[in-house]
Each structure stands twice: as C-alpha cells, then as structure tokens.
Amino acid sequence: MIVEVKNLTKIFGRTVAVDNLSFTMKDGDILGFVGPNGSGKTTTMNIMATLDEPTSGDVLVDGLSVVDYPDATRAKVGFMPDYLPDQSDISAHEYIDFFARASGFKGRELKRRVREVEDFTLVTPIRNKVLSALSRGMKQRVSLARAIVNDPQLLIMDEPANGLDPRARIEFRSYAKRLAEMGKSILVSSHILADLNEICTGCLIIEKGRLVRKIEGSLKNLDLESVFMELTKGEVQ
Ligand SMILES: Nc1ncnc2c1ncn2[C@@H]1O[C@H](COP(=O)(O)OP(=O)(O)OP(=O)(O)O)[C@@H](O)[C@H]1O
Ligand SMILES: [Mg+2]
After folding, report:
1. pLDDT band at 87 (very low <50, low <70, confident <90, very high)
2. For a disulfide at 25, which of 34, 76, 185, 218, Cβ 3.0-4.6 Å?
3. What is the rounded (10 degree) CA torsion for 55, 59, 64, 65?
4. Which CATH architecture has domain 1-76+153-237?
5. Residue of 8, 16, 43 with the most ligand 1 atoms within 8 Å of its CB, for mutation
6. What distance in angstroms lies between residue 39's CA and the mean position of ligand 1's atoms?
7. In this structure, which residue's CA is closest to atom 12 in ligand 1?
8. Taking the domains of the chain in order of start, what are their residue ranges?
9. pTM
10. Which of ligand 1's atoms lies nearest the C-alpha of 39?
11. Which residues pair with 60 in a beta bridge?
C-alpha cells in the first residue's frame, strides 16, 4: 500500500500551518516527522487521520482520498494523538472494546481482536482498571491499542514517547518496529530525536509547514540532532 501526501496545504486565518507538503510512504516504512514547535506536524497528521480537512492538496491512502472518501480512508488508518484518553469512568478494556465495535468487529471476532490487541500492547493485566487510575505510560499503551484495533495499514503516532520513562520509550520503539515488520507504514513525530534514530527507515524535517529535508534510509549513522539544528531556526510560529 502506498500513502501519498500531495501538495498538502492548511491555512488557519493568517497562519500557513502546512505549506505545499508532499511525501510518500510504503509498507514497512517508519518515517520520522520532526520540526520545531508549531511547524505543522500535528496539523498534517490530523489531516492524514481525517480529523481535519486541508485547505488544498490531498492525501491518498491506498489510492483513496481523505477529502473525497474520509470514511473509507479512516478504515485504513490508525491514529495515536498527542493527548491521552481522558474518559475517567470506563475501564481500559471497555475503551478498547468500544473502538473495536466502532470499527465493525462483532461477536467472536470482536472478542478475539480485543484480546489480541490487549496482549500485544500489554494492557491485559490492567484491562479492568478505569482510565483515570492509569499512569501515563499505561494510558499511552491503551491509546496505542485503540489506534491499532482496526488493524490499520497506516499508523500515525503524534509524539508517542512524550513523558515516558526510558523503559517505556524502549517498549514503544519495539511496538513500532514490530508493527512495521507486519507490513504497516508508520509516521511518527517526536522531539526525542534519539528515539527516531533507533527505529526510522527515513525522516522528514519540516519548518513552518515546509519540507526542509527528506532523509532516506536508516538514521543510525546520522547525527539527526545536528542536522535538525542546522536546518531549523527553532522559531516558534
Ligand atoms: N485549530 C487551529 N487554529 C488556528 N491555528 C492553528 C490551529 N491548529 C494549529 N494551528 C497553528 O498551526 C501551526 C502548526 O501547528 P501544529 O500544532 O501543527 O504544530 P506542531 O509541529 O505539531 O507543533 P508541536 O511540536 O508544538 O506539537 C501553529 O502556528 C499553530 O498555532
Ligand atoms: Mg504537535
């Protein structure tokens, strides 16, 4: 499956949040998405996840346009937002089960899918706890479970490692790698460049909504921090 971001532009009032951004992704890619605060990462991801509409341009997920076919596209996309689940009075299991039902699972298949995802994300031991009783790291896992429950081909993760301790960050990198090995395409934003160095098969650096550098191939031997500092001025928009 191919994901094509084509001349994507999003304007809020006088702010050009995303400015003619284009890139493509294929199966198994883990593409890092970095840029200073306010450079347009979340806006781009929201549009790719059909949560917002572009001012112009489009995103094609397996040939389907997010503008013309948002429902059909949504079925192929999983989104992990940069905020945590905040419904306080339902359990982790009820939360994941709800989203599995919403994406069309029923009966035995529903049970099997929820169990599988809870096992994969290590939510099983805490599945009966209410969300408000979970630590940040546990909530992040529940958030990942929700994002992958519909078995998406494209997984979008907006700062998934934010606020996690070192062990939980390593855990997150391992989830991303395993999902990519299953053939999924992953777009992951992070301000923790070391996390991206470890797992990404490529990286996009944006500033003021514009692509300033596209790095292809492993980032392992690259000093991403230096490249980032060189290319971005760190101005907050
Ligand atoms: N709903 C909105 N209304 C108006 N302006 C917005 C809205 N959402 C985002 N913006 C503006 O668009 C620009 C890009 O914001 P965005 O949240 O996409 O950046 P980001 O790269 O995700 O930043 P961060 O690293 O801080 O998460 C910013 O100037 C922001 O103020
Ligand atoms: Mg953001």
Report:
1. confident
2. 185
3. 0
4. 3-Layer(aba) Sandwich (3.40)
5. 43
6. 7
7. 17
8. 1-76+153-237, 87-151
9. 0.95
10. 21
11. 4, 65
